Amino acid sequence: MAAGPGAADNEPRMNDADTPQVTETDARLRALDGRLERTNELLQRMLAEVARTPSTHAIFVDAGYVHAAAGLLVAGTEDRRSFDLDAEGLIEAFIDKARTIFADSRLLRVYWYDGARRRIHTPEQQAIAELPDVKVRLGNLNANNQQKGVDSLIRTDLESLARHRAISDAALVGGDEDLVSAVEAAQGYGARVHLWGIEAAEGRNQAEALLWEVDSQRTFELDFCRPYVTRRPVTTYENEGEPPPSREEVRFVGAQIAATWLGERGRDRLAELLPGAPYLPGPVDQDLLVEAERLLSRSLRGHAALRRALRDGFWQHVKAQF
Predict the structure, then answer these.
(1) How far from the centroid of its chain's Cα atoms is residue 271's Cα?
(2) What span, in angstroms and rounded, lies between the C-alpha atoms of 78 and 138?
């Protein structure tokens, strides 16, 4: 039977105007598929690169805590003037320990936080700063030889490195409760913080609040610390019954020590002391006193005028060289 005249009208028709629209849509879909493929390929390459890139760790050392805790544990005193700390050896021991703990990670660097008057490096701090992979950061040292500003430096570095994904793990050697905020800041950016401490001679030398916040804890015991702490010998003086030396004699000894140090420590290190004149950083002043007492075979403790004469002689020679 022939189709009626209206049958063809019921079949769908495609207008010529419809054809470009379908073609344009297909082209857009194909372009979108291409971009998705390229994006997926890029993501896969990035993930592969990340998988090949080792994680990174850094070690943050509160030198004040280390001196106090290790000195008390090994030498029986927190007084820095009573013992010597082999900072280079201890830092290397920390690095070796980190290599074992973070086996698949590389070391960014060791941060050594200490205090100094007017933030001027002492000769000992300068020597530490010259070690490879070590950065010395200085807070202030007040009249009571107390560190000021060290905790804020630790927080700044920890937070910044974690925020920029420069580290995945941080080993923190310290014990002050003020470090809690530094730990929280680093953890907020995804870094793991591991608290390292030194065995307490008695009681506890790390704040409980700090122990609660960190991701792991580790304590270094006496046998670990003993090789790096040496108690200074107690000097005996044979001439204590005689009158004290004159101020001129002590002033001459001060100049003599300055001349010796100039040859041993170098002009640059002594020149760094000039901005602090007439004061000397605590450790340098202590070294000057100990050396003067050795040369004089007399104690200058309790003789404030003679100690001033000693510093006068020291500064007189130093300033004459610059």
Answers:
(1) 25
(2) 20
Task: Please tell me the least confidently modeled range out of 17-21, 150-154, 241-245, 252-256.
Answer: 17-21
Q: Is the pTM of this model over 0.70?
A: no
Structural domains of the chain, with CATH: 54-231 (3.40.50.1010), 247-321 (no CATH)
182 or 38, greater pLDDT: 182
CA dist., res. 194 & res. 192, Å (int): 7
Average pLDDT taken over every residue of the chain: 84
Two tokens at 272? 């760094």
What whole-number distance in Å separates Cα of residue 169 and Cα of residue 187?
10
3-state secondary structure string, the chain? Answer: CCCCCCHHHHCCCCCCCHHHHHHHHHHHHHHHHHHHHHHHHHHHHHHHHHHHCCEEEEEEEEHHHHHHHHHHHHHCCCCHHHEEECHHHHHHHHHHHHHHHCCCEEEEEEEEEEEEHHHCCCHHHHHHHCCCCEEEEEEEECCCCCEECHHHHHHHHHHHHHHCCCCCEEEEECCCHHHHHHHHHHHHCCCEEEEEEECCCCCCCCCHHHHHHCCEEEEECHHHHHHHEEECCCCCCCCCCCCCCCHHHHHHHHHHHHHHHHHHHCHHHHHCCHHHCCCCCHHHHHHHHHHHHHHHCCCCCCCHHHHHHHHHHHHHHHHHHC
- Cβ pair 57, 102 in contact under 8 A: yes
| Joined tokens for residue 285 | 């002043």
Whole-number pLDDT of residue 290? 83
Which of left, alpha, beta for 203 (phi over 0: left; psi -120 to 50: alpha)?
left
Cα–Cα distance, 76 to 182 (Å, whole number)? 30
Q: What is the pLDDT of residue 49?
A: 56
pLDDT for the residue numbered 20: 53
pLDDT digits (tens, 9 = 90+) for 12-52: 555 555 555 557 777 777 777 778 887 777 777 766 654 55
